[in-house]
């Protein structure tokens, strides 16, 4: 059995490695080029299809949980009519980073198959863990997805509240902190943050006054104006 398999593989290799008797090298090259274009076009079409709002909310885990929350925020409905869809915040725009993110997200298929968060109760139990993974990703890339739309250079802090202007000048413009550090609850409800607030306060206690810490913590669940 094993010998026949080896023989079959040798025949296949001989077929592929032998020069063509009836097709010119130019035809083979041109055919390979068009096949490559077709593959690349199909691959990118499929990639973009997975970035649509319809695809992201196709499973009930997302549609009945975080998507319902998003619909109540300014990122979904606002005076300018510009909507941020799921992939705007959760998928990097750069091609290499996008592919890496898609590979990471492939494990969500595993979660779907085995029903990791297929009920509201399971989702709430896992919510903090899921949120922390996403917060860590955004902190590591300096909130890249936020900055694809929001530019510090074009930000007019004179039109912001005093609290927001002071926070941006102190943390954002200096690079000391990044967007996600303050805007964790901007598009979705926060998970149970018991203990997390205390941890954050301890990080700031050497550089901030108690009032500043309190102001900072209050931004964990609301957007800075």
Descriptive overview:
- The protein has 225 residues and is an all-alpha fold.
- It has a domain at 56-77 and 84-218.
- The chain is 60% helix and 0% strand.
- It is built from 14 helices and no strands.
- Residues 220-225 have low confidence and may be disordered.
Globally, the shape reads elongated
Give helix and strand order, one letter per element, not per position: HHHHHHHHHHHHHH
By oligomeric state, this entry counts as single chain
Q: Strand content of the residues, in percent?
A: under 5%
Weakly predicted, low-confidence segments: 220-225
Give the distance, in angstroms, between the N- and C-terminal Cα atoms: 72 Å
Give the fraction of residues assigned to helices: 55-70%
Number of helices: 14
Mean pLDDT: 80
Major sheet: none
User: In total, how many beta strands?
Assistant: 0
**Helix/sheet category:** mainly alpha
Q: Radius of gyration from the CA trace?
A: 25 Å
Blueprint of the fold:
Blueprint: H1 2-17, H2 25-49, H3 53-56, H4 60-63, H5 66-70, H6 86-90, H7 95-105, H8 107-113, H9 120-140, H10 144-147, H11 162-172, H12 179-182, H13 196-204, H14 210-218
List the keywords:
single chain, 225 residues, mainly alpha, 14 helices, 60% helix, elongated
Short description:
Helices cover 60% and strands 0% of the residues.
């Amino acid at each position: 059995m094993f010998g026949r398999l080896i023989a079959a593989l040798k025949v296949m290799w001989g077929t592929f490695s032998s020069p063509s008797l009836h097709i010119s090298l130019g035809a083979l090259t041109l055919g390979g080029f068009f096949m490559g274009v077709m593959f690349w076009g199909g691959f990118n079409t499929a990639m973009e299809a997975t970035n649509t709002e319809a695809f992201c909310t196709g499973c009930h885990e997302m549609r009945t949980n975080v998507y319902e929350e998003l619909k109540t925020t300014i990122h979904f409905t606002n005076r300018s009519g510009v909507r941020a869809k799921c992939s705007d915040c959760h998928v990097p725009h750069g091609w290499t980073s996008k592919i890496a993110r898609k590979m990471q997200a492939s494990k969500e298929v595993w979660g779907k198959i085995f029903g990791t968060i297929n009920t509201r109760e399971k989702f709430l139990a896992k919510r903090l863990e899921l949120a922390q993974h996403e917060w860590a990703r955004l902190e590591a890339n300096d909130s890249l997805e936020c900055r694809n739309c929001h530019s510090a250079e074009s930000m007019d802090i004179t039109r912001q509240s005093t609290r927001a202007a002071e926070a941006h000048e102190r943390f954002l413009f200096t690079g000391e902190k990044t967007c996600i550090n303050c805007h964790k609850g901007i598009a979705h409800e926060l998970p149970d943050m018991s203990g997390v607030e205390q941890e954050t306060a301890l990080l700031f206690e050497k550089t901030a006054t108690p009032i500043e810490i309190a102001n900072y913590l209050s931004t964990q669940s609301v957007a800075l104006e």
